[in-house]
UniProtKB/TrEMBL annotation:
It comes from Streptomyces lucensis JCM 4490. Residues 12-58 form the Cardiolipin synthase N-terminal domain. It comes from the Bacteria. This is Membrane protein. Residues 92-103 have a biased composition (Basic and acidic residues). One of its GO terms (cellular component) is plasma membrane.
Length: 103
């Protein structure tokens, strides 16, 4: 089983780099067009040149321009309610519909 570990690690890195390259928006790709990076990762994946090149130079990495943490980039910025209990109108309608509180 241990002799298959290097092959599995190379395969995992290859798959990760390929999926990361496909999911990266075009404006975050550096030095070459995205299609060329996909071809490089696919053709040179067995010798780790393509995936390592993509991970090191192909994608813009680092802190975002607005200084927010990665978890904060995907949060709802107030455009709508996250959950019903965050909506004051929903909470008010619960009070109005509950006969016990209307005594």
């Amino acid at each position: 089983m241990l002799r298959y570990l290097p092959f599995l690690l190379v395969l995992a890195l290859w798959i990760y780099a390929f999926v990361d390259c496909l999911n990266t928006p075009e404006e975050e790709v550096r030095h070459l067009p995205k299609v060329v990076w996909v071809i490089i990762v696919l053709l040179f994946g067995e010798v780790l040149v393509g995936p390592v090149a993509w991970l090191i130079t192909g994608k813009v990495r680092g802190a975002p321009a607005n200084g927010s943490a990665p978890a904060q980039r995907h949060r709802n910025t107030g455009a709508g309610w996250v959950a019903p209990d965050d909506n004051p109108e929903f909470l008010k309608s619960l009070d109005e519909n509950n006969p016990k509180n209307n005594d």
